Amino acid sequence: MTGLVLRLAGLLQSFGERGVFHYRDTCAFPTRSSLIGMFAAAQGRPREHAFDPYPHLKTAGDTTAPCHRDLTLTIRIDQPGTLYRDFHTVGGGHPRDQSLLTGDGTRRKPAASTLVSHRDYLTGAVFTLAVTGPAALISHIAETLERPRFGLFLGRRACLPDEPLVLTADSADPVKELLTRTPLTRSRPPGPADTHLPTTFVWEHPPPGADPATPPDRESTSEPTNLTRHARRHLPRPLWMTTEHLPAHLYAGPRPIDALTRYMHGEPA
Question: Residue 20: pLDDT above 70?
Fold first, then answer.
């Protein structure tokens, strides 16, 4: 098992969790579904094959081909961002034969032809992730994220990721990287007396050192089973959330790109 470290940042991010019909919500952090979808897009996989296993990545001794279920995701919330709600109108101003369809297949009346929908986004959010899994699969994901076949986006097509996306492509312990080495993006610098910075982590399993029987802190409908357009389906997944006190020297400064560049070149934190 090995892993990679990713940084998700951009003007807008939106990770739908429960939104349907006229209201499209966003989770407060990237969902497993959005990340698996990003990996599939980077590999050029259409939606109907997003979850196919990778037989060409089998190594000696493997009984089954690696797949997305072999991946474990750990999320560090550097900046939670600000919730932004966008209002959309659809269908207004068209003649009756072009108005929106109702549930029974008929057309909406002109007086009710405009449909208002709400879409939520995160602005100014930054997340750093550890992705662990079989070495061959991790290497394949890192390589395709650097040279994606399809466009990459942070939840929705309008949400483009900043660079750099891949911080470390081959780490023996990416979770330790998040805790001890990877630069931390913050809008405000630590105070003169601050030696540690409280930072929220999201775990897919009980966090290190915790009792394995520790109940989850929340449940997220983010385990994808089908990503095709008209048959999307997700299962609930338990998540654990902790506050980790990271050393203050991980603060990336007012220009995070400088600290990130040094980190990517292997310079000490």
Answer: no
The 3-state secondary structure of the chain reads CEEEEEEEECCEECCCCCCECCEECCCCCCCHHHHHHHHHHHCCCCHHHCCCCCHHHCCCCCCCCCCHHHCEEEEEEEECCEEEEEEEEECCCCCHHHCCECCCCCECCHHHCCEEEEEEEEECCEEEEEEEECHHHHHHHHHHHHCCCCCCCCCCCCCCCCCCCEEEEEECCHHHHHHHCCCECCCCCCCCCCCEEEEEEEECCCCCCCCCCCCCCEEEEEEEEECCCCCCEEEEEEEEEEEEEEEHHHECCCCHHHHHHHHHCCCCC
Q: Which of 6-10, 209-213, 214-218, 221-225 has the lowest mean pLDDT?
A: 221-225
Q: What is the pTM of this model?
A: 0.89
Q: Model confidence over 156-214: pLDDT tens digits?
A: 988 999 999 999 999 999 999 999 999 999 999 999 999 999 999 999 999 998 998 99
